[in-house]
Amino acid sequence: MTDLHPNRALFDQVMVPNYSPVSVIPVKGEGSRLWDQEGREYIDLAGGIAVNSLGHCHPELVAALKEQADKLWHLSNVYTNEPALNLAKQLCDLTFADRVFFANSGAEANEAALKLARRYGWDKVGEEKHEIISTRGSFHGRTLFTVTVGGQEKYTEGFRPAPGGITHIAYNDIAALEAAISDKTCAVMLEPVQGEGGVRPADKAYLEAARRLCDKHDALLIFDEVQTGVGRSGKLYSYMTYGVTPDVLTTAKSLGGGFPVGAMLATAEAAKCLVVGTHGSTYGGNPLACAVAGKVLDIVSRPEVLAGVESRHTRLKNHLEEINAKHNIFTEVRGQGLLIGAELTEAWHGKAKDFVNAALEEGVMILVAGPNVLRMAPSLVIPEADIDAAMVGLERAIAKVLAA
Ligand SMILES: *Cc1c(COP(=O)(O)O)cnc(C)c1O
User: 8-58+303-403 has which fold?
Assistant: First the structure.
């Protein structure tokens, strides 16, 4: 039964075909380096899609996981547990939040936020206050509710009928939001930086307007910080870089540093709608997940780590600008902290994947964000030498694609 050398061909035999992974299979990671089955080394600027916030197998995270593994793995929410209580306290102390709900992923955290918003409208006014406003280009996860709130048609195609009462408007467009919002709106959901949608940061004035309009119409402002959260923006959460505070915030990805965990943070006023029995999750608040996430938060909230994100941002951005000065390949390099997008010039639109594949050949892992944008979301503590080496490889890859 045991296949001693599982390979990419096996994927097509035994896996549902919804993914199309590359042919190399990484088997070991340390810091920002990965090794595949053949022992080839890679520098990881993909970071598990903004998840491996402290790189691979960070010794303090490994220790936290092992320590908890010897004590207690799982209880369910019939009981509470110490790691979950500690993590919730940390999150409340470090952010605007008064209350925390734990989930296992970004989509689940968003599902909780959206259900909370519906209950908020229902409690305050009644069922007519159910409308949810979201933006085109946004991404909120793959459950049917979150994919419907997300602003990318291709992800709901073939899955209708979808949940109703959801309106999509242009991102960063204050007038569109003013026109769409009403007293029937229960929530406005926004990413402070649209991640999957191309690494597009919100304008400060836009988030400020969203805050003002939500207050005016008694709607909840939900920030989806699944991708931007836990230090990635250079502050613990991106809302802190804008000085605009939501009522509800969702966080996952970097929170577990590679261990699956998600959380919804809320004000006491919003949280009180989810009374006993209204929502739940078997694994939410799992002790292993919370022990690891607690350690991630400990480390990431150290001032030197957050300052390091800013200096690495500048270093990475400067490298990309230098590459662009030579090859004239990007229209813009943008983003916050260590979530960076480089938009390809028109001639290369639709070809982002070619650059990702070429980079992999050069031993550098990067991501796309849509068909036109190269995305980088490395470890927040990636050694500067690894950034430099990765940029040498990326430039070689770009030169090869241009010459092909
Ligand atoms: C990745 C992502 C999600 C979905 O998270 P999962 O853990 O894959 O469910 C939701 N929102 C944003 C902004 C994301 O980047």
Answer: Aspartate Aminotransferase, domain 1 (3.90.1150)
